[in-house]
Design goal:
Glycosyltransferase; mainly alpha; three-stranded antiparallel beta sheet; 23 helices
Length: 714
Amino acid sequence: MTRKTIPASELDAAIVRARDALLDRQHPDGHWCFELECDATITAEYILMMHFVDEIDTALQARMAKYLRAVQRLDGHGAWDLYFGGDLDISCSVKAYFALKAAGDPPDAPHMVRAREAILARGGAAKSNVFTRILLATFGEIPWRGTPFMPVEFVLFPRWAPIHMDKVAYWARTTMVPLLVLCSIRAAAKNPLGVHVQELFVTPPELEREYFPRKRGLQQAFLVADRVVRHLEPLIPRALRRRAIQRAVEWSEARMNGEDGFGGIFPPMVYSYEMMVLLGYPEDHPLRVECKAALKKLVVHRDDGSSYCQPCLSPVWDTAWSVMALEQAPPDARTETAIARAYDWLTDRQVLDLRGDWENNAAPNTPPGGWAFQYENPYYPDIDDSAVVLAMLHARGKRTGQPGRYEMPVARCLDWIIGLQSRNGGFGAFDANCDRDFLNAIPFADHGALLDPPTEDVSGRVLLALGITERPQDATARERCIQYLRDTQQPDGSWWGRWGTNYIYGTWSVLAGLGLAGVDRKLPMVRNGLQWLRGKQNTDGGWGETNDSYARPELAGKHEDGSMAEQTAWAMLGQMAVGEGDADSVHRGAAYLLDAQNEDGFWMHPYHNAPGFPRIFHLKYHGYTAYFPLWALGRYRRLAAARASAMQKTKAESTESAESMTVHCPGKHARRRGLESATVAPSPAPASQACQNARRMRYPPQRRAPHRTRSGCA
């Protein structure tokens, strides 16, 4: 259907429907936590972990196996991918096949035959990544020479060493330490059912000589070094190894984090649990019990009888954005109560009393003060979440006439963030200056995700917070951040997005920061960003971008299946942040969101919308299609109301002026009447009907968005 106008009633109804649906998902204590889904890898690893430690929950295994079958792409490449619509991934497919076989699926079942043929056609299991080959080695599927040499003595290296724990990202650090123990003791899975997958190898594993693809330059040099030093392992004194294992165990134990889990993410949890089992921790040992409980908290049980494992939980992130969206929606008593409870919940989550690993890379005397992504993860607060929450707290204090209420938490968080600014002016997610690129050349780092360098999207978020708070002492940090963003802008005007897909996400994040930092909107960096966004708008009025753009930058801002609601919202929010709320592209984006909204009030679709690590691990935040479109529509509506109010004020002033002129210049009276007849004045209306102030807003012809697949969101 061609859409030439948006009825104000339709806009209001869509916003209220989304608002109420979001309110329904709030937990009693005030927070939100939506599903955080990835690919089949982690669910498969959960099944294989149960076989590794001989603790098989057959009912859970059956539910997880059902999920793995459901996400197999039998209508495409035949195996498993890293994101919906992506190409076959060898490592993910090997683990999923192995897990299904362990769960009891016969190898001659049609879906198993199809998967096996697809894997073999891509070179077989020997072509898997490092983490998969380590798993295969622990189950006896390949020799240990098929894995990188990873001595646990690494944890004893001094800080001045080229390779040190403080020089890699938090997620790599927490994963590596227990994994080093497993590799150094040559961990052997218990595998009570004796499940093997030798059929997935083109060449028998013992005869395979190409576990490590040939590289060039520094990567090849590290490969040569790996082959040399692994032969020296027998010379390592036993006392030194015992000391190293003890150090690794103590370091891990200090960060176990109760039932919220080591690092708050799946890989350290599973490796530390396997480590404790093999080192002889009894079943009732408190750390082992808590770690097992943390793993179970990640499991999502669906109504269709399937279950899957999340990589982590996202309550702080989901709560912050949900509140931002609700603050733009029409207010009512229920909404105000929900917002107040959410702020109380967020305030209580601030880390004020523990100096985490970030301290080793921060400026001297940097105090703790950040927020974590998860429920609890005090060793690893993240800058992205913290910037959003502190900006919200500051704005709420001003809005409610209580600027002092949040003064301390805001100041503490700002001091912490400034202390983690990197030397190039940008901000990473968890650490400062975690950008030693040569470390990604070591054989263990074939995923290319060993580091946490500054990124444009996180830096844009920090700039937003610095712009809102406007502390004089932060002026230098703010200018350095702006310069970093100027230096990292792509030639086409866009910015890369590290934590959301991809250039649309990055460009929105930066434009929002520039807008709230008061950067001149006429500067080329702002205008070029806007031009890029508008150039990527689809004919249906929305925006969409594939995760393929991480490997193929020419696909930036493009998606073969059209527009996505959250990406449309990002593009709209980016434009509105720099004063372009009345742009035709924004109007068309709003029309798309109205057409694409599902009956439940949300905009759910099957596509992954963020990378955990670009190109190797991707995520689907179920909350993104709940709160970002609501935020965009709510903001759009408020700006329309403001424009209508301004028009009404201008007309009133013009009327008063014309009446005055009538007294002194009677000859102008007819001209004034003509102006009145040519002007459509907005009539006063309550906030819930703001768009009626502008009557009907006009758009180019639109086509209705295609029906989108829906599934559960929380």
